[in-house]
Amino acid sequence: MDRLKRYGIISFLFLLILSIFYTNYKFYNSYKFQKKLFQDWNEASLTLPLEEVLSYDTNFPNVSFSGLPLPFMKGRYLVMDSLLKEEGLKMLYQAEKINKYLGVHNNELAGYYLGQKNIDSAYANSKKAFDRLPNNVHVNNFFNILSNTQRERELDSAFIVIKDNKKEFQWRDYMFKKTEKFENIQNDTLMGYLKEAASFFVDKNSLNILKELIDKGPKGFGNYVQTLKNAEKYFLEEDFENAITYYTQANLLAPNEATNLYNLGICYYKLSRFEQAISTFERFFDEFQSTGLEEMYTAACYFELGDKENGCKYAYRSDNMGYEGADELIELFCR
User: Fold this and answer.
1) CB atoms within 10 A of CB 76
2) b/e per residue, 65-75, with b = 16+ CB within 10 A?
3) Residues of the chain with pLDDT > 90: what percent?
């Protein structure tokens, strides 16, 4: 009996240790691909190969280290594939049972249905995402759908909900939408918003851009919005020649907006017009505060032109500013 008990205890301990090792193994593997999925989600991109994403197990664990449901993080890739979109939709809806409070799956569904021109489903999901977590990126999607469907009163109500958060991008987006889509807005109303915004806007350049556009009147403001929309449309379609035309116009209309000049440089880079890209990024350095990303692209341009000295100079500058990715250029070209 004692021997049987001893064997039983040993067997139990063996199985326990085995299960612990297995669990740790699963969590370790999960953590490795979670980092990749999270980086893509954080940058609002889908850069990972679909074959790699399909290999990821999102059943155990089913929640990422950041609290995001893993089926949501995997499903957002699948819905973009015509053969796998149904499975992707199931995974997005599955995320509701795992963690509904973040509303990230609703926001993703809203974007999907908007692309399918299913406005009712896009609106319903976007509203759920906003109601669950209004102080987040869900605001942009919700404002976009409300303005496109002419729900001005609901747009105003949604702005009141997040107004006291005093987040620049939310205020700025609201004012753009009001001016772009609704005819009754007047200059003095926009100026009133800006006067209040001046007390907390950290990015004074952004504030100045809005003032410049409002001074041109609603028509000028709307022209800039339309010009920027055209630039972004062509950029996403990888029609960089047309994107250059519109980003150049947008830069003339709002010379204090750093993003327009940055995107103009990226367009030149994508077209392998490296000298023009360098010239554009040098203008950026003269006029705006860079983040290290601009330096990395400048380094890449110099390397493409065979100028190792200047390429390494900007690569090290980017690395010193803490931009991830610069170290790869340094390892490849400078050591």
Assistant:
1) 24
2) eeebbbbbbbb
3) 27
